[in-house]
TrEMBL record:
Mn(2+) 2 binds at H238, H327. Keywords: GTP-binding, Ligase, Manganese, Metal-binding, Nucleotide-binding, RNA repair. This is tRNA-splicing ligase RtcB. The keyword Nucleotide-binding applies. The gene is rtcB. It comes from Mycobacterium celatum. Pfam families: RtcB (PF01139). GO terms for biological process: RNA processing; RNA repair.
């Protein structure tokens, strides 16, 4: 089953289809504009969308978001749901190695004009307080084995209860801060060892803490419900489950790959290794993945608290949580498919859940407006706050960011560290605190698609609506 660009059929200017062929059980659907699709190397991207469409139990379509790019097995920006009651499978490749990588947005009681006089001092303090980089180093560096178990079971709830936080920190975090079906016992000793050294840290790559300002509102009543106003200073944190999540994915890909023959499962790409959700292998992965998701939520809670401490000490203002949402996760959800309500395992890899107004999983104060969706831009560009909409396609999913256009190696060759710093600091006035020169150039804005176009296409495709645009004032990079 070879898929070529000629197989891509334009249904609308923002929706393309790949018809079923070969072993595909459902069609492929890509939400994008022509300009967002890569001019070269489109074939392997379409092939990944088609390969996902062969997964046992998949329903409706193999979906891809406007920020789609090549990933491990699944494309990044991929969404797929399998029927739990009809042989549906769960695939670690459909979640990725950074389990529950996500975004946390906090709003300050501070205006943009008041940030300038303290910008340097504030960014220096954040740079000292926020651990980052590929190795160990953490806000909570001495976590014991029993405390780690409690975090894997309780996520952000455990951190709020035992290390401080507010009720809003849990109300405005998906799942109230924790997956209840997580099992610390499903996490390997190697994964635990990595997790004990990194709890409360950004990591490296495209992870960051960014101080931003609300530049524009597109829906003022919804923005007000979210706690946002024009000119307000905010803090956006993008990170995940660090080495613990990576190790869990590594462990489970190997174990599930070995088990596929026993389950009678065949896939066109071993990176799509999967197991029936109701099998022992499927349940074990779901339990371990949920534990990693809880770790990620605890991680962002700790980093948010550290940022709040810095703001309080330097500006005398506090930070309040707008929302915390993952974009690398598989979860059991109920959706209507062809007139029937089904229990589905929805994989979102580089895609964000976008619950509509009235959804029962929303906190009470957001029931009338829908769920906040947090879309980080590339370094130096705008970020966005979106909201879920009624009738949203792809099981209420939307994009998760700008989407990588160049590899890290290509990005590093495209601009020098000096030129990038000059662009960001002197030309754009952004305070930059990077862990390494190489890390900065690998995440240059030119390495990514235009986040404004990605968001516009997502809205025009009916996946979400735009609420606010934020611009960077300062960034702490891994």
């Amino acid at each position: 089953m070879r898929i070529s660009p000629s197989a891509l059929i334009a249904e609308t200017p923002f929706r393309f289809r790949i018809d079923r062929s070969g072993a595909m059980l459902v069609p492929g659907v890509i939400f994008a504009s022509r300009s967002l699709l890569p001019e070269t190397n489109l074939d392997p991207l379409l092939q990944q969308v088609a390969n996902v469409a062969t997964l046992p139990g998949i329903v409706e379509a193999s979906y891809a978001m406007p920020d789609i790019h090549l990933g491990y097995g699944f494309p990044i920006g991929g969404v797929a749901a399998t029927d739990v009651r009809d042989g549906g499978v769960i695939s670690p490749g459909g979640v990725g190695f950074d389990i529950s990588c996500g975004v946390r947005l906090l709003a300050a009681d501070l205006d943009r004009q008041d940030f300038g006089p303290v910008a340097g001092k504030l960014m220096d303090a954040l740079s000292k307080r926020i651990p980052r980089g590929a190795g160990p180093g953490a806000v909570w560096p001495d976590v014991s084995g029993s405390e780690l178990d409690a975090v894997l079971r309780g996520g952000a709830r455990h951190v709020v209860e035992h290390r401080g936080g507010s009720a809003l920190d849990l109300d405005r975090c998906e799942d109230g801060g924790a997956f209840d079906d997580a099992d610390a016992g499903a996490v390997s000793e190697q994964a635990r060892a990595r997790g004990m050294r990194q709890l409360g840290s950004l990591g490296s790559g495209n992870h960051f803490l960014e101080v931003q300002a609300v530049a524009e509102l597109f829906d003022e009543p919804v923005a007000k419900a979210f706690g946002l106003r024009v000119g307000q200073v905010c803090v956006m944190i993008h990170c995940g489950s660090r080495g613990l999540g990576h190790q869990i994915c590594t462990d489970e890909v190997r174990a599930i790959d070995r088990s596929m023959a026993r389950h009678g499962v065949r896939v066109p790409d071993r990176q799509l290794a999967c197991a029936p959700i109701d099998s022992g292998d499927g349940r074990r992965y779901l339990a371990a993945m949920s534990a990693a998701a809880n770790y990620a939520r605890a991680n962002r809670q700790l980093l948010g608290s550290s940022a709040s401490d810095v703001f309080r000490s330097i500006t005398g203002t506090k930070l309040e949580l707008v929302y915390d949402i993952s974009h690398n996760l598989a979860r059991i959800e109920r959706h209507e498919v062809v007139g029937h309500t089904l229990e589905l395992c929805v994989h979102r890899k580089g895609a964000t859940r976008a619950l509509p107004p009235g959804h029962p999983d929303l906190p009470t104060d957001l029931a009338d407006v829908g769920q906040p969706v947090l879309i980080p831009g590339s370094m130096g560009t705008s970020s966005y706050v979106l909201a879920g909409v009624r009738g949203g396609a792809a099981f209420h999913s939307t994009c998760h960011g700008a989407g990588r256009r160049l590899s890290r190696h290509q990005a590093a060759r495209s601009v020098s560290p000096k030129a990038l710093r000059d662009q960001l600091e002197r030309q754009q006035g952004i305070q930059v605190r990077g862990a390494s020169a190489r890390g900065l150039v690998e995440e240059a804005p030119s390495a990514y698609k235009d986040v404004c176009e990605v968001v516009a296409v997502a809205e025009q495709a009916g996946l979400c609506r735009t609420v606010a645009r934020l611009v960077p004032l300062g960034v702490v990079k891994g």
